[in-house]
Automatic annotation (TrEMBL):
The keyword Repeat applies. Its EC number is 2.6.1.16. This is Glutamine--fructose-6-phosphate aminotransferase [isomerizing]. Residues 41-181, 214-359 form the SIS domain. Homodimer. It is an enzyme of class 2 (transferase). It comes from the Bacteria. The gene is glmS. It catalyses: D-fructose 6-phosphate + L-glutamine = D-glucosamine 6-phosphate + L-glutamate. Keywords: Aminotransferase, Cytoplasm, Glutamine amidotransferase, Repeat, Transferase. The active site is at K364 (for fru-6p isomerization activity). It is found in: Cytoplasm. Catalyzes the first step in hexosamine metabolism, converting fructose-6P into glucosamine-6P using glutamine as a nitrogen source.
Amino acid sequence: EKGGYDYFMLKEIAEQPKAVADTLLGRIDSGGSLTLDEVRIPDSVLREVDKVVVVACGTAFHAGMIAKLAIEHWTRIPCETELASEFRYRDPILDSRTLVIAISQSGETMDTLMALRHAREQGAKVLAICNTNGSTISRESDAVLYTHAGPEVAVASTKAFLTQLVACYLVALYLAQVRGSKWGDEVRGVVRELSAISGEVERVLETMEPVRELARSLAGKNTVLFLGRHVGYPVALEGALKLKELAYMHAEGFAAGELKHGPIALIEDDLPVVVVVPSPRGRSVLHDKIMSNMQEIRARGARTIVIAEEGDEAVVPYADHLIRIPATPTLLQPLVSTVPLQVFACELATARGNEVDQPRNLAKSVTVE
Ligand code: M6R
């Protein structure tokens, strides 16, 4: 049932291009329009939405952080993303014009379920992004946009994450379509590129051998840091989470701009630091900023592992190790930049002799609060 792979996680990493394509299937027509028929919230209601709140846990929360950036940029609707376990305990302000998006692979995560119940009690509409048909979260929501990742067995979430991202982009683009977007041309371009993105994920998978080699060489390390900005920040958090849960290593993700406010004190000789570099096209100011972050940490001895777009030559002098990913629109980059981090964590776990599919102390779905 592992399809010739040693671990479910490896199989699920390899299934990502198909999972992404399946989640897009039938949702974008040949003219570039989105049809999300299953989202039974009428367009008239979506036009009135004045706030979006995304709630989720763990990896799904990282997808939600990226959803916030996409929703606010393309639709200009204020959006906040919050850990489901924190959400209802702060007495959040919600009403019938609030759209709550609950993201959950299993559809059984108790923290997320309690958050969505609280939101509905306050009159908010809840849209679930869920991978499991008939799960509690999908049954209790006003509407569901299913991710079509297929069953995910490994405790560490991989293909579910990529499909959650796709679903978040679809919701953001759909809201932009229904309400109009000041970035009309950009939105059309993104829809086109999103339709073709599974081929890019496939290309990343074909180039992972050096990442595996690098991971094996770091098996004796105690700490790995991850830095990113904008969409690269949740990707950094996701890379660190994967490493914690699989390799049982101290791993932390930071917004690169925060370094100088404290974490830079952690940098010491030969410390591996993974840097997720934004596209030099698009928001190039972000690119410039992360270049100076890399300079700062290298000056203090860090060993940089740089994930950067093909053709981004400016990063070469700052990279001790360079992992190339295909060029994508800025907001879509997590679909390709996360993949090397999954492979990295899986290989490090193997090298350290850990149980990859069933890490210690963890359950696949967390059904207690
Ligand atoms: O089933 P869910 O998506 O609601 O699960 C949420 C988290 O428990 C889950 O993503 C967890 O963080 C994974 N083990 C991460 O790999």
